[in-house]
Amino acid sequence: MSADNFQGKTPDYTFLGSSPADEFREVARIHYKEAKQLFDRAIEAQAEDRQEETKLLMDLAIARRARADEFERAARGEGDDPIVTEILDSQEEMCVKFTPYAPAFFSEEELLHAELPEDMKPVPLGRIARAVAWIGSWVTR
After folding, report:
1. Residue 37 belongs to what domain range?
2. Residue 54 in contact with residue 46, Cβ under 8 Å?
3. Each residue's pLDDT tens digit, 84-132
C-alpha cells in the first residue's frame, strides 16, 4: 500500500502528551464500537433463534454503551468517574484512621525471661542421640 492511502486518516493510536479528554474520547469510541458489534451479534443470534445468547449479548452491549457514555461525560468534564471517586474517598478515610507503625523493642531483661511456645521448641533428643553425643564428647577431649 502506498503512503497516500494513509494521508487523510485519523490516527488509530494516541501518543504521550495527549490530553486526558482526548484519551477519554478514544476509550469511549472503542466502547461504542464494541457495543455496536455486540448489538449486531445479538441481532444475528435472534434471527437464528438463540434466545439466551441474544439476551446475554444485548445485556453486554447495553453495559458497554453505558460505560462509553460515562467516558464521554468525563471527556466533556461533566461527571466524575465513580471508581476514581470511590478510591479517593477511601484514601481520605485511610489518612484519617492511619496510625504509624511503631516497632516494639525489648530490653535485655525481657529477652532473658522470654520463653518459646511449645510448638517452636526443639524436639528433645532420644536415648540413642544422647548416647552418641556423650560418646562424642569423650572422643573430642
Report:
1. 10-83
2. yes
3. 555 555 665 665 666 666 667 777 777 777 777 888 888 888 899 989 9
